[in-house]
């Protein structure tokens, strides 16, 4: 399999991932096929092995490929999950902008949770619980992140505020991409995933019991946790002054 060198003006791991996706989409790679080694990829694309390694790691997280010591890397799925197209542009989102977006979400979604606790209907509770059940039971990262996003969207619908809905339409694209990106980090970190799930259940309980103040508080606590997690992740990976998510 021959791959053209990447554009050195773009992020390396993203370019490597894009080349692999192209090979899958074009039929050059089919399920069961062995991929080139890290060294071969690096040589063909004229990039570092670390860039290749990170691209392959992302594909393995999403169960697109399987890597076994001594056996190499094998393609498992005939296509790449659409979620990758959502999160890739934001994997190197500037840390300060991510913090600002989370601050905005804290104000917006704190108010949403408060209104939802006042106005929710039985069908809203069913939708919220269904999202939580999906998030808890599935081991598929893509499905888990989608269930996470659905929980936030169902909560917004439970507020029954048309003006707020209009605001959400304006910011939904950015917010949803942020949810996908932060969700990617959370849901591939077992301890953090369990913490988030418990936080969502506390939000649900407050909405279920029609306790607006508690719902508002639980949502704020959840987003504060997200801020702390992202900061710690950035520092741990030596990107505290650059990006929140940098592979």
TrEMBL record:
SMART domains assigned: FCD, HTH_GNTR
All residue ranges annotated as the HTH gntR-type domain in the record: 10-78
One protein family per Pfam: FCD
Coiled-coil ranges (or none): 115-148
CDD domains, per the entry: WHTH_GntR
Superkingdom of origin organism: Bacteria
Keywords linked to the UniProt accession: Coiled coil, DNA-binding, Transcription, Transcription regulation
Protein's name in the database: FadR family transcriptional regulator
Organism this protein belongs to: Peribacillus glennii
